[in-house]
């Protein structure tokens, strides 16, 4: 899978799942937490989406903002886990 | 407990009995036992009665012997016996044994200041013929509702807004600023209501209407001493004092000529009010509760324990998801405002159980969490502020794990994420709303669902700015804990807990709630306590627990706090999805009401229908959109259809002269 494809799937998920489909000027380097895009249960939704869609296993100690807190971070993280070069 | 309404025409139009009858018909559920109408040319008063005190002599509207004063009254003045004794000593003679008559006499004696002497929960209007003025008042904490509007002819008021709709010159339209407030604070800032030009009298206020216009006067407000003047004596002495005041607050709330029951939720507060009542009555009390299938919400086990400990005859209503889905349209019709939680629905069903069990009056534990430091939002703010003093601390954020033990979504978070969710910035620390910012900012994200048209109209509006303008001048001098209590006690308590979950749900089934913790003596005592007595370290309601430790079984005294919550959006989907979901939330229906973005709502619905996990925000979003659409249908698009079910025959004048 290409990084571009990973990026657009993640972006779509974030917009559909957390922003009621409204992109609302969401930029890829924007913090999802600081801008209130996701709440506490949202993180768990995000994790289960990533595990199912990209067939990866996410350890508890990987659930940290450095991995999950922006579309860019997510793409890097998923690319690393799936062995795609970002 | 009753429903009241009335009209005062400023032009020469006489008020006709028919229009008052229609208003009464709209809230007949508030008072099925009796009705009354008073007309004097340009003045009309209406009353629907739920007979509780002086079953025979308490007919209303009630007129003074000299025919100068006529009152329509909803509520209870619990200290009426003491006030009556005092008035009799001053030469007043009473024709009934009602509290209503006491209001009339005290008004004769002290005028508008009489309300300062009342201990109770009230909304009333007195027509003062000599002075040609209408005087209205609402209780300190906002237990009883009172709405008003101005029409081309004059002034109209009622216990419920639907009664105002019965006046053909009144039409309703959603107030978009109110909507913004509800989708931030969960309630409006009084006097605003969800409808344009329909106002509520704020709690603690009186209103005078005469030919010179309307004047609102605040007679009471919640206040806290400066930091240095707070009570911080020995706990034991204060605990004893608190118990004594609570006992008396409960004692006078048992004054009734019909039996009084009790809500018993399984938490500390209602166990205390029930225990105090049982100790006074000396007989087995009847108690009532709700249970849920889902263990995340169910407190049935604790209710059974409390009931066994207090030896009450207990009944509970096992509330299912479809019970919630089926009752939401009626819940909104009665509640009259958008809601972000389904929690009012089980309260509606609980009141039905109470009524079907033959009870009209229940004691309930609301108010303790607000005034005695029970809510997690106070704990959360305390931890965030403590952490902010040393942001580099690695230990302090660990306290965040102690928050919300009942919320799985929070417990499963990594510390790194919790630090982010409860982050503290310089800007937050400087805000008067520090305690409430996480809740309000999360809720305000729901405004993404508003249509572009609505967004455009409220573009320059900021609900928090407006709230800041309503804060009392002394607010800045109070300690942060008391600031948080003020926001909760003057905001969510009257705007949601006492209305959407309280009066409106109980009165839908002609049941009156009584609140010992909201006796103003309890509230004023609590406001003088040092915050450390309310929340000692992270032990919430610490002084209350100490004061009442022997009244409550240890398992309930020591259990972690669990706020009352109910299953959310999931109740509405699956094989039994009610047809009104599609009728109200289809793109066409949303286009008609023009409030929400149809595409955004369809994305939200798809998420629920897919059966995927949903967040707290999604559930608030769904309930908010659905209840707003119901409100628009019932009050704006098809009000006649909904009022039609309330139609009743014309009433002739019927009032009591003393």
**Total number of helical segments of chain B?**
29
* CATH architecture label of chain A: Orthogonal Bundle
Mean pLDDT of chain A: 88
Strand segment tally of chain A: 0
State the helix count of chain A. 4
CATH class of the domain at 2-220 in chain B: Alpha Beta
Mind telling me the C-alpha Rg of chain A? 12 Å
Unreliable runs of chain A: none
Low-confidence runs of at least 5 consecutive residues of chain B: none
Q: What structural class do helix, strand and pairing data of chain A support?
A: mainly alpha
Radius of gyration of chain B: 24 Å
**What would the CATH topology of chain A be?**
Non-ribosomal Peptide Synthetase Peptidyl Carrier Protein, Chain A
Overall mean pLDDT of chain B: 93
Q: Quick one: biggest sheet of chain A?
A: none
The global form of chain A is globular
**Dominant shape of chain B:** globular
Task: Determine the N-to-C terminus distance of chain B.
Answer: 20 Å
